[in-house]
Structures are given as structure tokens and as C-alpha cells.
Amino acid sequence: SMPPEILLKIFSYLDALSLLSVGCVNKLFYDLANDNGIWLKIYSSCLQPKKTIWKMKSEQTEAVPLGYAALHDKKPGYWKKEYILKQTAAVKTRLMQLVKPLDPYTGLPFKNKEAVKVSGLSWIIVLKDKNGKEHVIEKAKLSFKDTSVTILWYSTNWPCLDVVSTLKLFGVTPLLPDLNKPPNKNGPHRRSLIAEYHLANLTEGSIAVGVDNLVQLFSLNPGLLVGIWKEKNEIAFVMVSLHYHQLLERSILGSATVQYAPPPNKPVLDDIDPEYGLHGYSLHLDMHGRSCTYLCGTFKNLFCRKGDIANGYLRLTVVSLKNYRKHLPLTGTLGLSWETDVFKGNVKDCYVMNLTLLDEIGKPFWCFSAPVYMELSSKTSGLYDYMGHIYTTDYADSEGKVHVKLIWLEETKEYVIVSLVLYVSTKKVNNWYGTTY
């Protein structure tokens, strides 16, 4: 029952975050909280030099002429949008400064954890059932690695697996982040769609990664792992692995409905020749089980000759079966750890693979982080120096394939990588360089 003029006067004393919050109460409050006069004053104050702000008194600040055109020629909410754009642009500039320095080994920014903290970035998943109802799962545990972050969600209120249709992964950032304060969980936020997964017929339409006494694991690209209780056939947890190369862009620059699409690569003048193939590539590979690392290595000067191009792929041999000196032992017993509020477990012969392939000028060419598993290929090894079971790990997406061959050495209780080959899609290479292979 309070007159709008009085409410408007009260709103004029609020800061930007409070105005955004009060605008969610009802339609009247929303309209009043969009007042251009209030927002232009907030917008102007954030642009004034600090020295000027300190010299001005509060009475003088209110007497500053706002300009008829600035107020009445603009639609309601114009200066609110301008203020939000200005503030988010300042944070993005700060983030770009943080991610500029590159690690000489991975070729990727090494201040990713600091950038995530500055942005106030978090992640949520939204499960949508067949009736259209959405279930938001916010509570998550993070595990940071050199080139990726692994996010684990578990809840006691998962919807029944039989009625779930899709899962959406969002990056969530404060609408008005403050670089000097920790993010306010109850303040206004914006969502950026990272990926959408279809979970209908999950057990038939996805890859079975592994199983232990309590759960079964199913994998969907990109980087999604769903744990299903064996007894109840219901969701136990959801785990997502995100590579840093796509992390900030997809988590911040997309909208709530449309995923962020990176700009096309601009190739530099080089001696790339379809008759010759690729050269000067480098690979950074990280294999881990959430809490422990099994292998972390960098491989330089990878190349592909014309004879290595076949069936729509260019082959890059990282570890050769014949070169015993470059065979790689893995540290520890491979397994993927998981947990919920009550139970914990470890699924053997599963791990997360982080791959970063850089082109000849050190630009990220193909990057992913995904759960993979080992499969028994043969019980005996035909290699002279090894006696043990042979296992393989395979990964494939639209940009390429990875094939890893390992041997289990019973005497030393360790796995050894005896072959590691990348198959890069010719379509990916052609789009990257604007050429034809």
C-alpha cells in the first residue's frame, strides 16, 4: 500500500546487489528497481575517479544533474544492463590477465585455480524428468589437477533413474562479482550451459566403464561419469571432468540455453604441406584417479608423415612398441575413487585421462578430460622383455582417437605403457589449417 514514490526513494539508498534482489519480490518492485535514475547514479559513481569520489560530499553527489536524455530517452532497465555489462567486463579483463601466463610444459595457463576463485565460479547439474520437472544439485566436491578439474556431486534426493530424461551441466558465476570479497551464495547469479546429456536408456546408450561391489559406472562424452547403485538401479553420484582449455570459456561465456562456441582458428603462415604431414606437435598427458596421479608426462616433437594418413585420421605415435627405452611405468594401482554421504569405493582399472595436444606454435589443438577404463586384451605378452597380461585403453570423440596398450607386470605389481598412439581426424586438421589432407 506504500506509494511508488516512497518506495522509489527507499530503493535509491540500496546498492546494486540489493536492488537486483528486491526486484525479484514482485512485478511492482521489479519495475521500480529498474528505474534509470537510480541505476545511472550507480553507473556514474563506479566510473568516477577515486580522488573525485573522496572529495565529493553526499549532498553534492545527490545534486549531480543526470541529464534528461540519459534518463527519459532510454527504456527502463537500460542503465542497469549497462552497469552489469561494465562490471562483468572488468572481471573478465582480470581473468584474462590471470590466464595469460602459460606453463612451459603443458602450454596452458597455470593460474587456473586462482582464476576460478576470482570469478566466483561454481558448477551445478540440473536433472530434468520426463514430466518437465527440474532437480538442481548444487553441492559438489572439487579436485584440481595440472590440466583439469574433477567435480563430484552426490545427494540423497536424486530423482528415480527411470524418469530422468536429460542432465545439464552449468557454470554459475555471480552477476556482479566483487574481486575484494568472497562470492555471496545468495546473491544474483547467471548460468552458462556447458553440456547437455541424454540419460534416457542410460545403461544401453552409454559406455560401461567399470563396477565394484556397490556401483556401476557409465560414461558419456564430454567427461561425464554416472554411478548407479547395483541393488536399486538408482543414481548414486555424478562426476564430471573438465579440461582447463575449455573450462573458463564454457563456464562463463555461454548463456543459460546456448553453449559457448569458440572462434575458428586463424592459422599462421607455416611450412604445413599436405604432402608432408604434421610436425612439431607436443603432448601433455595426465592419468589420475581423482585423488592420486598415475602418470604425468610431456612428449615433444611429435610428427606425422604422409604414409601415416589413412581412413580419415593422421597418426601420431607417442610411445612405440619397439622402442623399449620410452616405455612408461604407472605409479600405484589404477582405480577411480568415489564417495557419497555414507559410502566410499574404488572401481579398479578405471582412471581419468587428461590429454593436451599442442600444434607447432604451442596452441592447444585437441584437449579433453574423460573417464576411461582398461580392458584385458590377451593373457600373454609376445614381447621379449615382458611377461604379463596385455590391457588396452581406448578413447574416441569427434576430433580424434587414443589407443593405449599396457602390460601388467606381476613381479613388480605395476602397469607399463608399451604403446601410445593418437589418431587425429583429418576433418579437424583441415578446419584448423584451412587445407586438405
UniProtKB/TrEMBL annotation:
Boundaries of every F-box domain copy: 1-42
Q: What are the GO cellular component annotations?
A: SCF ubiquitin ligase complex
Specify the domain of life of the species encoding this protein.
Eukaryota
State the CDD domains in the record.
F-box_FBXO15
Provide an example Pfam family for this protein: F-box-like
**Protein name (record):** FBX15 protein
Write down the species.
Answer: Formicarius rufipectus
Ranked from the top, the taxonomy reads: Eukaryota, Metazoa, Chordata, Craniata, Vertebrata
